[in-house]
Specification:
This protein has twelve helices and no strands. The chain is flat, with a radius of gyration of 22 Å. Bound molecules: protoporphyrin IX containing FE. Protoporphyrin IX containing FE binds next to helix 2, helix 8, helix 10, helix 11 and helix 12. The site of protoporphyrin IX containing FE (HEM) has 29 residues, from helix 2, helix 8, helix 10, helix 11 and helix 12.
């Protein structure tokens, strides 16, 4: 059977039964989009917080009371003293003065504050939609799940920060950073999926295309997680040549840590090598999918082009030793790549039954 026969033509299919509210769906969609955009901003501010080494400047976890920054000289002196006493990172920054400390504090504070703002922007309209019957029995559990995931993300954020408070680590534990980053991606993807589902148009169910889209989402998910490890280990500043790594195809330190599995979480060479190999794999699979499905599903070409752009940007980031602007752009585009693939999965998922 030819591909053209195997794939259904795009259809304006209704969303899964019962998901779409009878009234106000436009408003609910606009709200989901706003939340997704805010989560996107949160991912970027989080990236800037990490790249400026600002993440350990607030050594306490006060979800409500911490909304206000220090208001007096004494308050600032106290926050600075806690940073110096409670983090090993401060010893690396021994010459730091108060105004430099305030510089890193504002990044971390903005990241946390944006998190609080997302909580409010989510919860208040949600209650309104509940009370005015603008949500449905099928949609409400998804929205509650999203809210709970947001709360969990706050907790994981603190779990991450706590790995660098009163410990010997000079920055947060990379695998905790990876967990925090991956949950952020899951939240934005979930929000986007609901937004698409409430629109309910332009689906093109097809087993074959869905198979390709599913493969892509798994590889892209792995690639994003590996990227977070590379970032968390600052590995993008250790090996800065391409296509080789310090002149070698496979770095000789690939399995230098014991036991072997620790290399895949803690070794700069291994994580960066895996990030490169997975990028090439993603590029090949996305290219093949685009070639195979190009006549019927042009969005695979869009996704493959985005992956190519992202891989090129990754190389640029690397050979420039991960400066703030390129690293942030790489993170920002990576999230767009992932969402473009989420859309492919949503679009092609075969109808139930
Ligand atoms: C093709 C798909 C790719 C995707 C989806 C991707 C995604 C990501 C993500 C999500 C991060 C983590 C950003 C963060 O947490 O701040 C990252 C970091 C990084 N990636 Fe990629 N990447 C790709 C390809 C590449 C390639 C081909 C290279 C270089 C050969 C590369 C080099 C880097 C470097 C150096 C970092 C660390 C930057 C930093 O310290 O902030 N990436 N990548």
């Amino acid at each position: 059977m030819s591909d053209a026969v195997a794939l259904a033509a795009p259809v304006a299919e209704p969303a899964p039964s019962g998901l779409i509210p009878a009234k106000g769906v436009g408003l609910v969609r606009a709200w989901l989009l706003l939340v997704a955009v805010m989560v996107y901003a949160m991912i970027l501010v989080g990236g800037a917080t990490r790249l400026t080494d600002s993440g350990l400047s607030i050594t306490e976890w006060k979800p409500l009371l911490g909304a206000l920054p220090p208001m007096s000289d004494a308050g600032w002196a106290d926050a600075f003293a806690k940073y110096k006493a409670m983090t090993a990172q401060a010893q690396l920054n021994a010459g730091m003065n108060l105004s430099e400390f305030q510089g890193i504090y504002w990044w971390e504070w903005s990241h946390r504050e944006l998190g609080r703002a997302i909580g409010v922007v989510f919860a208040v309209p949600f209650l309104f939609f509940l009370l005015t019957k603008r949500t449905t029995r099928a949609l409400t559990p998804h929205l509650i799940a999203l809210f709970c995931l947001g709360g969990l993300q706050g907790l994981i954020g603190w779990w991450m920060v706590s790995s660098g408070v009163n410990t010997d680590l000079t920055s947060v534990a990379p695998y905790r950073l990876m967990t925090h980053f991956c949950l952020a991606l899951f939240i934005i993807a979930y929000c986007f999926w609901l937004w698409l589902s409430l629109g309910g148009k332009d689906r093109a169910p097809s087993k074959q295309a869905y198979g390709w889209a599913s493969a892509l989402i798994w590889i892209a998910g792995l690639q994003m997680a590996l990227g977070a490890l590379v970032a968390g280990l600052d590995a993008g500043r250790g090996y800065i040549d391409w296509p080789l790594m310090n002149g070698e195809v496979v770095p000789h330190t690939f399995l230098s840590l014991d036991p072997w599995w620790r290399n895949f979480l803690e070794n700069e060479a291994t994580t960066q090598f895996m990030h490169r190999i997975t990028a090439y794999t993603l590029l090949i699979v996305a290219g093949l999918a685009a070639l195979r499905l190009r006549k019927i599903e042009g969005d695979f070409i869009v996704a493959a082009s985005l992956v190519l752009l992202q891989a090129s940007l990754g190389v640029m980031t690397l050979i420039n030793a991960a400066p703030l602007n390129l690293s942030l752009l790489h993170q920002a585009l990576g999230t767009v790549v992932l969402l473009s693939i989420v859309r492919l999965v949503w679009k092609t998922v075969p109808a139930k039954g």
